[in-house]
Amino acid sequence: MSTEIPAPRTAVPLGITDPVERARAELKAALSAIEEKTNVPKRVARATDRGVTAARRFHRENPTGAVAAAAGIAVAAGLVVWGFVRLYTR
């Protein structure tokens, strides 16, 4: 009983002997790789999902640290805004 592991879209299947079919498979894989690399919204969504997952895990494991981190981020953002306003009003 053999279970085939699905190949990623950017991989060229092994065992293609026809040169035309192999060239088509390589072109398809190259175009898929380019699409994956240049699809910025999809990459941002994946990175955001990873960040949210990491933040939730951190909050579950260390609630006090998560609250302290949120407070620190709020203070830092407030200081940045205060600094910009101060520079602008001079």
Please tally the helical runs, counting DSSP H or I stretches of 4 or more residues.
Answer: 3
Strand content: under 5%
- Roughly how many Å is the radius of gyration? 24 Å
Helix content: over 70%
Structural class: mainly alpha
Largest sheet features: none
Shape: elongated
Order of helices and strands: HHH
- Poorly predicted ranges (pLDDT <50, ≥5 residues)? none
Task: Output mean pLDDT.
Answer: 88
Keywords: Membrane, Transmembrane, Transmembrane helix
Organism: Candidatus Microbacterium phytovorans
Protein name: DUF3618 domain-containing protein
Transmembrane segments: 66-85
Structure, explained:
This protein has 90 residues and is mainly alpha-helical. The chain is built from three helices and no strands. Helix 2 (40-61) packs across helix 3. The termini are far apart.
Set down the secondary structure blueprint.
Elements: H1 19-38, H2 40-61, H3 63-89
Helix pairs in contact: 2-3
Give a nutshell description of this structure.
This protein is mostly helical.
